[in-house]
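Students often ask what a holo structure prediction actually looks like on paper. The answer is less mysterious than it sounds. You provide the chain, you provide the ligand, and the output is a string of discrete structure tokens encoding the 3D arrangement of the protein together with magnesium ion.
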Amino acid sequence: MKPSAVIFDLDGVLTDTAEFHYLAWKAIATRLGVDFNLDDNEKLKGVDRENSLLYILEKGGIAMEASQFKQLLCDKNEHYLSLIADINPNHLFAGVLSCFRKLKASNIKIGLASASKNAALVINKLGIEALFDYVGDAAVVTHSKPAPDIFLAVANGLKVAPEYCIGVEDAVAGVQAIKSANMFAVGIGDTKVLTQAELVFANMSELDLNKVLSSYQSNTAT
Ligand code: B16
Ligand code: MG
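The corresponding structure tokens follow.
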């Protein structure tokens, strides 16, 4: 069986906006007097804005009014937008364009399944908008990662059944979302962290598409 689509996560897979999310959340946590370290950041990768703030509040044992909660979400996003203001095509990770080229040459569709409501802006700044066959909208899915919703919405938009899709993610919550969507999961990062992924590569330039395709094939051969 040959896959019909590869659906990519954005932050931490195609570009390093994960770092900017981290800095913006760290600033909010510091304001609230909550310790926020790299382990916390790992847990928040792929987690949407509201749930990320809830995690920080829970960690600090903090309760607040809905209006203050909303304000903090706005502040975090404003800070994040200022951090990504200068993003340009040079911020695209090495290996992404060649991978996309190979996928197009093999007639495999390309989708985007980011939890970020800023995803459209980021891919526009990166200059890769036109390369996607379908871009999911995090603002319209009901349940965020680790629920499968965004990956299923993109598969649906691409008109490809989930079992013919491969998902690529850097986050634990994202790999869980791919698996719950009944897709083949490729992790970008650490094998010890992304334990549910079928294959893991350190980064996009290490991603070996032939290996992914043959592993997908043996996985689906019955
Ligand atoms: P926003 P991804 C996720 O994007 C990030 O990993 C996560 O850290 C962030 O909180 C989430 O998007 C929401 O982003 O605040 O811009 O809507 O990794 O799913 O591409
Ligand atoms: Mg990510």
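The two ends are 10 Å apart (CA to CA).
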